[in-house]
Structures are given as structure tokens and as C-alpha cells.
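Risk register update: the risk of archive-format incompatibility is retired. Evidence:
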Amino acid sequence: MPEAVVVFTGIVVFARMLDVGLRHRPGALRALWRDPSLLARSLLSALVVVPLAALALVAALPIPPEAALGLVVLAAAPGAPLTTRRAEAAGADLGYVSALQLTLAGLAVIHAPLVVAAFDLGVDARGPTVEQERIAVQVATVTFLPAALGWLIADRAPGAIRRRAELLSRVSRLLFVAFLAAAPLSLVFVPDLRATLAIGWAGAAAVTLLAAAALASGHLLGGPGAARRSGLAIATVARNLGLALYLAETSPALAPAIPTILAFALIAMLLALPCSRRMRRRAEA
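Archived output:
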């Protein structure tokens, strides 16, 4: 992977997670942590159900090793930066979703290497061994640290610093737009890349089942309120694709996972869009 691509991806993920922290709603994090039942169900859905579903699909389906690796990298990358925007479209409780985002960003430092280690132990014949310590450092650098910094600025910093931070937030959104635009342009101008995205019917089926399992898990574990159910469904299916790509780009052992990660981005969006509309109507009702 070219060094410039790796560096740009890392910058984009860092900037977007900083924006997540800056956009956190005051008091929402404490409110989530003071509700042990909701917190436990939320973490179970985003951090436990998705990895277990990925491992089950890898063990049960005849998918290629690189597709299996992609499922595991996706399962190891919770807390997408765009979760709040997607949750808003689904009529979700935005305070709850933003608090869950920050919580997932912090836990990802421990969660990501544990998921990869479980993959190595459980189905080690399907993929290469990966350094868990390196993954923990990478996740801390591009997700936990910027999210924590943004939260501290939003919660404690004087107004002048917050205004400068908001400028950084706008810059991060522009960087992310450039990042999103680079993907289709690469598909147009790099024929070899188009060929690598063919993950096969078994791989596509596994990606679809993983996205469906994530949506169903969030809906079932979100509780009685429609706004919470839709929020957890979106937060569970919205894996941190930037982080997943960064991990794959910076580790040769994970590089074969990139086509599956990109395929999940498309398939999960196609599944989530009609679900979001339906969940919004229920939340409004």
C-alpha cells in the first residue's frame, strides 16, 4: 500500500474521530453510564454480537480467506464517525448515540486486538497471525486519542478554543468528503482495483448476513423505545470503515481484507437505508 494513502487515511480517521468528540452532547455520556442495563445491551450488540456473527460466518461458510479476514477486521472496528448523522436519519436518540460513539471509541483500543486474537485462535488456518499490540497502538492513535481530545475541548475548553476546534471539525468533514470521493475515482481510473473488489458470491453473502445480523441485534437489544432501538441498530451496523481500512493498510497481514471492507460499505448502506426510513416512521409515531 502506498505510504501517501496510509498517511491520508490515518489523518482522515483522526480528524473524523476528533469531530465525534467535539459533537458530543454535554451530559449524554454520564446519562448512558448511569443506565447499566442500556449500557450493557449496547456494548453487547456492538462489541460481542457482531464479532460472534463474523466468526460464525467464517466457520460455517466456504468463503475465501481474504473475505474471512475482512469480516473480522470489520467486527474489530466499531464506532463509525458518521453514526450520529445516520442515526439522525433513522429518528434515533442522538444524545444516546453520541455517548455510545465515545464509549466505543475508548473500548476499541482493547476490543480490536481481542477480536483479531480470537480469530487467530479460533480459525487460525484461515488467515495470518497479526500483532495485537500493534493494532492496539494504531487504534489508540487514530480513534481513542482524537475522540477523547474532542470531548475534552467540547466539555472543558474556553469558548475561543472551542471555536477553533469547530474550524478543525469543518476541515475534518472536507477531508472525509475527499476520502469518499477518492474511492469511486480510484475504481474508475485503476482497473486492477476493480478486479480486486470481486469477493465472490460466498463473500458477498457473508457480508450481507453480517450487516443484517448487526441491524437485527441493535433492534432487538435497544429496548422498548423506538428511538433507542433505531440508534443501537445504526450504531451496531455502522462499523468504522476508515479505521478498518487504516488497520488493513498499515499491516501486511490484514491487507487482503480491503476488498471485503469496501464491499461491506456498499452492502450495509443499501440494507440500512430502507431500515432507517422504516425506523424513523416508527420513532415519529
